Amino acid sequence: MPRWPVECRGCQAGRSFFNVDHRGHVSKCVEFRAPEDRAGDFLQDAPSAVVPRLRDIQASNTCRACWYGSRGEVEGLYTLRGFLGGVTALVRA
Q1: Is 6 a member of any domain?
Q2: pLDDT of residue 13
Q3: Structural domain contains residue 5
Q4: Cβ(50)–Cβ(39) under 8 Å?
Q5: How far apart are CA 44 and CA 26, in angstroms?
Q6: pLDDT digits (tens, 9 = 90+) for 45-91
Q7: Which of 13, 17, 43, 69 is buried most deeply by CB count within 10 Å?
Q8: Least confident of 11-20, 28-37, 70-79
Q9: pLDDT at 8
Q10: CA 46 to CA 48: how far, in whole Å?
Q11: Which among 38, 15, 19, 20 is positioned nearest to 29, based on CA atoms?
């Protein structure tokens, strides 16, 4: 198991990525779409109001239920090996 920096342990939904549905509802993840899971609504709320709510949600996030491609791609970069692999892929693209 890699030794992750404290701020990178666990799911980073709400910090590294978030979900916006077709109605503008913002949640930390596609799996959390219920009204009580919402951080805001981009049709009614300014991004400057939604982002702090997402950060608060991420700070208390203990979810370990998934490993979606978007999550795996982002969190894979938190290790030196993952970062170097990502930079190599970017340069080759």
Answers
A1: no
A2: 81
A3: no
A4: yes
A5: 11
A6: 999 999 999 999 888 888 877 766 556 666 677 778 878 888 888 78
A7: 13
A8: 70-79
A9: 46
A10: 5
A11: 19
pTM over 0.70: no
Tokens of residue 22, six digits: 């077709």
Q: List the structure tokens of 27.
A: 């949640």
- What string of H, E and C letters represents the secondary structure of 12-81? CECCCECEECCCCEEECCCCCCCHHHEEEECCCCCHHHHHHHHHHHHHCCCCCCCCCHHHHHHHHCCCHH
In the chain, the number of structural domains is 1
Look at residues 36, 30, 26, 28 and name the one whose alpha carbon lies nearest to residue 59: 28
Looking at the predicted structure, is the pLDDT value of residue 3 above 60?
no
Q: How many CA atoms lie within 13 A of 60 on its CB side?
A: 6
